[in-house]
Amino acid sequence: MHWPWLLTATLLLSAGASAQLSDATKQLARDIFRELIQINTTDSMGDNTAAARAVEKRLLTAGFAREDVKVLVPEGRPTKGNLVVRLHGAEESQLKPILLLGHLDVVEAKREDWTTNPFEFVEKGGYFYGRGTEDMKDFDAVMITTFLRFKQEGYTPSRDLILALTSDEEGGTANGVDWLLKNHRALVDAAFVLNGDAGGVTTDNGKAIDVGVAATEKLYADFQLTVTNPGGHSSRPTPDNAIYRLAEALGRLADSPFPFELNPITRVYFGKIAAHESPRNAADMKAILLNPPHAEAIRRISSDPRYNSLLHTTCVATRLNAGHANNALPQTAQAVVNCRILPGHSPEEIRQSLVKKLADPKVTVGYVDGATNTVLDHAPDKPGLAPSAPTPEVLKPLEQVADSLWPGAGIVPDMETGASDSKYTMAAGMPSFGVGEIAIERNDHRLHGKDERIRVDSFYQAVDFFDRYLRALTSVH
Ligand SMILES: [Zn+2]
Question: For the chain, what is the domain count?
């Protein structure tokens, strides 16, 4: 008879944190989340401005002053609007603001690929489904909810809090963060940036095992491979077929991974997460930290795509385009190779490595300049910024609050292996940290994929977490 009682008590205690949210707050957060998911914000057909306007309306209705809420739309790009809102801090404050960053745009999603309509907000089996539920309308909805709650309560933070919800993080040629920094710097200028697009809480069977803070990022680069050939009639094949040459070169690339490399952040990361791994993995993780590292351990750890991406620069073929007719020899074969480059290496260095790995002078390697969508012979020479550790100002309150919600998980500094908009804010001199602390099961990441989803309880827990974290960050001492 004692066991069930004990169990219930424990469950109640552990659920206590999110149980503090009122039904009204949950409803508000859910309504905002639903509204954002149902506004298509893809680059192709979506309208980021519509999402920004929906948020603007809520903020104005809640009493934010007109001059503190801005929807900023680049000239000639009517669907690429960005929202910036400021919650004023104490008047006497000498502290520079904190910028909270989220993107409103989402990756393309095809109805036929999905079980549900990706632009319909569906609650099913304890999950919210829809494009952007993980990346990253969840965080956007949580932030908007938090700003509305602060306003409603009349909470005055110790310094200004700025929230920017932006366009074209996932691609497109109107990146909102880049544009805001160039055109409206004063509106988004801050002491540091907390970006919800990186970091995150990892759970294993529902139990939190780490609270990640992204403290450095890989650099993103696309390369275009091209083979050309005079072509001809397909009834008379020649040995220098452009498609075969390209395919063979890509095969060599696949067989030639970039070298193993650790930095101060990934060193700490593997040291910390080893505690939650199987004995085999844990031993391997310790072995890769040795000097010299253990080669077999590197090979085994790298067989997990997630860890592989932390230990190596990766380059992978993501698109192919070749030929012009079924009955003609191809005159052109092209592939896009997408690279995620470790900090400290430049895109041009990687371009030259690609040329060596592809090992065919007939295959040219150009750099795809995302801003202008042109292909250049030479890639940028500037390497990704060297990692900087999170400051105690960011970490201490995070530790406190994380500890009460996810006891024992511990803060783990991490490297973002995708690239987020932090690359722009970091380049603008604002230290930027990924704090997307929304709990996701370690093997259930579906961002950019089909049937993207997030656990319902994780979402509400994040509403609770960010309310507490932002208060802890900005309480007047
Ligand atoms: Zn994202």
Answer: 2
